[in-house]
Amino acid sequence: MNDRDYMEMALSLAERGRGFTSPNPMVGAVVVKAGEVIGRGWHQRAGGPHAEVYAIDDAGSAARGADIYVTLEPCNHTGRTPPCTEKIINAGICRVVMAMRDPNPVAAGGLERLEAAGIAVVSGVCEEKARTLNESFVKYTQTKKPFVIVKCASTLDGRIATRTGDSKWITGPSARRYVHEIRHYADGILVGAGTVMADDPSLTTRLPDIDGQDPVRIILDPALETPADAKVLRQESDSGTIFIAAPDVDVDRKKLLESRGAKVLFIPMSASGFDLDTLLEAIGGLGITSLLVEGGSQVIGRFLRAGVADKLMLFFAPKLLGGDDGIPVTAGAGPEQMADAIRLDHLQVRRFDDDLLVEGYVTGSAGQED
Asked: How far is CA 228 from CA 215, 231, 245, 258, in A?
């Protein structure tokens, strides 16, 4: 076992916190002495003890003279919990191996504090994996905007519904279950009012084996046309519902939705729709670090063309509609030249029974808005 092996173990522990730690990052830690893992821990929820605390407490007095492997630079400030650097120093740890520096300037400085205390520090072990694990935290910390994931399910000929709007179901149970895992991980979920009125979705997390976290439901509804009895307004959920409306919306419609427990945010609009940069700034201001965009076609197209999507998750089912009148994955004007097509990087392909998930990061041209 070497540094990379122990860090891989810490990364696996960090993964256990997915969906429960936001707005904090997922962090895992292992304490190693004489080649033996004597302590394990991970950050389990925001406001709770950090991974290093759990791992050192798990090791007990044997932590003195040991190494600790942690997926993020130990914090060096007092927030809702004391500094992890002091926990490490007081435990007598002699060497700290971290995957990455903390991008949050408030919590950073742990490396320097540990070195000043005479502790050997190594940084950058499995850094790329650590950054990917906390990609939402990294972006939000640096920009105060959420990490945006665009997700949809499509037939092989690129349709998300038939000409009548029927879309149940394109993919099978395994793929749909994974979508609910994604919802559990995300702070917010966004759809257009057209999707709400056509499908009346709940936009909640429904997992059979864990108590999943519901994302905040965000509806793009310029004129606040969503019916007051829509499912998004009738959920027993710890997460709320937010409507994004045009500034000149009817006041009575606003009061009606607010009476059902929803919030209404006003975002400037242009001929092509809401100003998405302003929208993401407003959403980020609510502490939402990750946003799952689920449709429909107009919304997906706008997010991609505006260049504000960070990741695309496209599920393909082994089905074809065989016509050109179904609802496409994206709607709106695309580029004139193939050279201006939106490109993806770091592609991954996964299989869920007969369905395929193509996942990648949006890195290429965003074309032009409508």
From this structure: 20, 9, 15, 10
| Cβ atoms of 265 and 244 closer than 8 Å | yes
List active site positions.
52
CA dihedral 71, 72, 75, 81 (to 10 degrees): -50
pLDDT beyond 90 at 247: yes
Asked whether residue 370 is assigned to any structural domain, the reply reads no
CA distances (Å), origin 82, targets 47, 92, 109: 11, 17, 14
Please tell me the total count of domains within the chain.
2
How far is C-alpha 208 from the chain's CA centre?
A: 21
CATH code for the domain in which residue 32 is found: 3.40.140.10
Query: Beta partners for 33?
Result: 36
Global pTM value: 0.92
d(CA 365, CA 360): 14
211, 173, 206, 203: which is closest to 295 by C-alpha? Answer: 203
Average pLDDT, the chain: 94
pLDDT of residue 369: 55
Residue 135: closest CA among 346, 332, 282, 366: 346
| Orientation of helix 51-59 relative to helix 3-15, angle to 10° | 120
